[in-house]
Design a protein that fits this description.
The protein is 43% helix and 17% strand. It is α+β, with helices and mostly antiparallel strands and 70 residues long. The chain has one domain. A hairpin with a 2-residue loop joins strand 1 and strand 2.
Length: 70
């Protein structure tokens, strides 16, 4: 299991093993994300995307990161 980083602040209840945990979407597995978002409406999904884009931008600014090859 990857290290929990708590980067985006969007927590969902996820069942891991025998217990439920509150886990940041960026710390979830792909299957956990798909399950958490499967019944959400379009507005909710758009807000998740905006929050993740802001998180990526903030991390890039904080550490002066840029994509390559663009």
């Amino acid at each position: 299991m990857k290290k929990m980083r708590h980067l985006d602040g969007m927590y969902f209840r996820v069942k891991r093993g025998d217990k439920h945990e509150s886990i940041c979407i960026s710390d979830m597995t792909e299957n956990e994300i798909l399950d958490a978002l499967k019944d959400r409406d379009t507005y909710f999904l758009k807000k998740v995307i905006v929050n993740l884009a802001k998180t990526i931008s903030d991390i890039g600014e904080q550490f002066d990161l840029s994509g390559t090859g663009y």
